[in-house]
Amino acid sequence: MKTLLSTKEAAQFLDVNEKMIYTLVAEKGLPATKVTGKWLFPKHLVEQWIETNTINYPAAVGHLPPYDGVLIITGSNDPLLEKAISLFNRIHPDHIAVFGNLGSMGGIKALRQNLCHMASSHLLQDNEQEYNFEFARKELDKAPAIVNFCRREQGILVQKGNPKNISNIGDLVRPGINIVNRAVGTGTRLLFDLELKKHGISGDAVNGYHHEVERHMDVGLEILSGKTDAGPGIRYVAWLLGLEFIPLRWERYDLLVSKERFFDKGVQVFLGIFHEKAFYDMASSLEGYDLSSTGKMVFQNGAGP
Q1: How far apart are CA 202 and CA 189, in angstroms?
Q2: Are 46 and 10 in contact (CB under 8 A)?
Q3: Are 74 and 121 in contact (CB under 8 A)?
Q4: What is the dihedral of CA 166, 172, 174, 175, to 10 degrees?
Q5: Residue ranges of the chain with pLDDT lower than 70?
Q6: What is the phi/psi pair of residue 98, to 5°?
Q7: What pLDDT sits at residue 70?
Q8: pLDDT tens for residues 116-128?
Q9: In a designed cystine with 231, which of 89, 219, 240, 269 is the match (CB 3.0 to 4.6 A)?
Q10: For residue 82, what pLDDT is reported?
Q11: Is the preceding omega at residue 93 within 30 degrees of 0, hence cis?
Q12: Is 210 strand, coil or helix?
């Protein structure tokens, strides 16, 4: 189990008095849970909270060189994006696209540090309507261009036949049920934690909550092998592996590009494949994806796509 801090220890860790800790919980979203009436603070989540709420960053040490044929994409893992990268590399042999699986937050941070041309992200905002804008605003000096890659269905993957009769998030705390989870900083983990909170469930109350894997497919394979009963993931993986799927919501999965790099040749060629018949034929055969907004610019406050 990850390290848990008491109120006093959390105050010492943040260098504030104990009364301020309660204010931070109530007003600033400091991660905390109550066990037998006492507040406990998962240290790794407190560290993530500090990083997420940082507003002043040192300037990036280096910059991406002028585009020379290598397109770097980092961020949230997605099987369709992996297929799109393979298609790009096949039909445009004078370019190479590579992907770094860092999770949505990791992708945005890499974009801030000029380590990539494009970041993939699906971070749900507090209003549960928009994605990515607020997170990008906190991390980046300038608002990026945002292009929709797809919409996809998120939910809970369970074993074929659903032998444990899991029907909703609340069932995950039942005795005898174990889950596998996605890592902190991924959009899937953010959504899962939000759903647990809605049901009044602490992560520590769910067996396997701290067992983290890197990809959606890893979640599916853990369940398929019988090592665990359930885990958060996308419908496509359940469909591909023959697992059952409990839907939670359709989400927007975007590509973020700094405006300085948006017209780099590799970026434009990659975005161009979304209008290729080969991409549409490949993607439209996969369950759990909606391509109605693929390739369209996204703007805040309902202006698009």
Answers
A1: 14
A2: yes
A3: no
A4: 110
A5: 1-2, 52-62, 301-305
A6: -125, 150
A7: 96
A8: 999 999 999 988 9
A9: 219
A10: 97
A11: no
A12: coil
